[in-house]
Amino acid sequence: MPKVWKFGDSVNTDDILPGKYAPFMVGEDVFQTYAFAHLRPGLAAELGRGDVLVGGRNWGLGSSREYAPMALKKLGIGGIIAHSFARIHYRNLLNLGIPAFESPEIADLLEEGDTVELDPRSGLLIRRTAAGEQQLQLPPPPEFLREALEAGSILEFYRRFKRFPGEREGAVE
Amino acid sequence: MTARPQTLAEKILSRRSGHAVYAGELAVVEVDQVMIVDSIAQSVIAVLKDLEATPKYPHKVSFVIDHVAPASSVSVAQAQKEAREYAAAHGCRLFDVGRGICHQVLIEERLAQPGWIVLGSDSHSTTYGAVAAFGTGMGATDIALAAASGRTWLKVPESVKVFLSGDLRPGVSAKDVALEMIRMLGADGATYQSIEIHAGDRFSRGERMTLANLCVEAGAKAGLVVPGGEVLHAYGYDFPEWVYPDPGARYLREVHIDLGTLAPRMSAPSEVDNVHDVSELRGLRVDQVFIGTCTNGRLEDLHAAARVLRGRRVAAHTRLLIIPASSEVMEAAMQDGTLLTLLQAGAVLGTPGCGPCMGRHQGVLAPGEVCVSTSNRNFIGRMGAADARIYLASPAVAAATAAMGAIALPSDLEEAPHA
Q1: Same domain as B271, residue B388
Q2: Residues B380-403 pLDDT 10s
Q3: What predicted TM-score, i.e. pTM, was given to this entire model?
Q4: Which of B3, B50, B214, B317 sits at 20 to 30 Å (Cα–Cα) from B406?
């Protein structure tokens, strides 16, 4: 059963993956093992597939490096719930198909070690604690991104339709 | 072109999407330049190959080898080789090792122009706002899609108006203004927004680059410095009439900074918005001073450092690393004697590029060390060891700190004897 890992405010892209461990520095096969190397040493080895990361304000501030979310994808993260996301990182998460939800209330409610089940499409989160089971509804992604998320990622969407989400066909050119 | 008054961001995105767009709407826009740095080139190329696509407009795609230049390992050398070969095979521009930092080089090469949209695979691509281009950072997937299609999608941002008035006091620089702006807005104060800086005819092109560069540290999607007076005309830019915000444009919020009230500023570890007056931090022993980066590696920055260090020596326990932002900066600083002054003061010189800013080579920090840097990020572990501490400051403050071996103001040196 996937677990919750809880973080504070302002988790930056160097916290998620220090720049010196980018794949071209250490190799494609291992770079994700350095996720959270400074912030929470050893965590990358403990993270399980489908686990949910919970953050505070401004998750992902910093670099445009897609390696930070790529490391999370390679580790099999099921989704991220935060008070708010930094812009470039949010876009990178969606581009890679990692579900990202802004919800201060649910981020505050969840606790480290909770077991959860997250449906990335509906945003339905089932939380299991000693006290019992709880169903929580995360806010849906912005309207214009929904068709891209339906396709799995923005890359898949473009590959299939040769246009961008929200773009009217033939609108440009 | 439109009925409702628009911000500068709305105007640029309208122009390039072919119809009027306003904050909150989704725009698909034509892109004028796509910039790809060495550290992400492999990923961009992989996505392009995965899409079975090549750059649609090769002349609008530039590769810059600056993040780890020259290469520090075989895997880095291999990644750079792939970027070089890809650029050559597809007719894209390549700025190779030593030419300099992507943002500096693109501005020098006129690959960012007023009213353009420039996408960069580096978060500090907001720098292009210095010349009223909509510059924004994106990841490998977005960059690859933009190269393949010549377009991208953007949510049209709300804008924050930053209004600067008055005159800076001696010893206070554009960096201090930018740090004050970040302090006022907060590190996430302008997330998903464009910062529109109204500075009149104050500040040179390089100083405007410093202001625009740091807008991303307040979370902004773009940082546009409104062209004012003759200041950019003097650099030979041609300003289309429309590249100004409309009177009556709608702003999410307005912030006013009276420049005359500012003292030199410093960001203390380990968030950029942890901003203090330098006088509060004065006296802290410093192991390394780094003057360079896309924020403050320009000729005027080296001039500011040389003015402070002329006839002085870097403190015995402190290293001063200077890395010009580009080969053009390096050459000019060599010709006018600036580099000689700095070398005589005891500075170490590096290859034009990003240097140790992101902790990959050329001057990483040992555990427990303290660095004063003219760069733009002081995150934990950014420049090496996780418990090294990074303070961000202007070139003049960095130079004074190098001479004293401890955090100092240039005015502190006047009381200290020459070495």
Answers
A1: yes
A2: 999 999 999 999 999 999 999 999
A3: 0.96
A4: B214
Rg over alpha carbons for chain A, rounded to the nearest Å, is 16
pLDDT single digits (tens) B222-261: 999 999 988 899 999 988 999 999 999 999 999 999 999 9
Q: Which two tokens stand for residue B5?
A: 């008054």
Q: What percent of chain B has pLDDT over 90?
A: 96
Q: What is the pLDDT of residues B103-140, one digit of tens each?
A: 999 999 999 999 999 999 999 999 999 999 999 999 99
Give me the pLDDT at residue A173, please: 39
CA–CA separation, B111 and B344 (whole Å): 36
Q: Which residues pair with B384 in a beta bridge?
A: B365
Q: In which order are the strands placed within the sheet that holds A4-6?
A: A4-6, A52-55, A79-82, A100-102
Closest of B60, B211, B233 to residue B149, by C-alpha? B60
B42 contact A CB<8A = yes
Determine whether the interchain pair A12/B140 forms a contact, defined as Cβ–Cβ distance below 8 Å. Answer: no
d(CA A37, CA A34): 5
Q: Is residue B419 part of a domain?
A: no
Tell whether A170 lies on the interface with B, counting CB pairs under 8 A.
Answer: no
User: Could you say which of A37, A38, A64 has the minimum Cβ distance to residue B121?
Assistant: A64
Reading the block at residue A46, the tokens are: 């403990």
Residue range(s) defining the domain that contains residue B349: 267-413
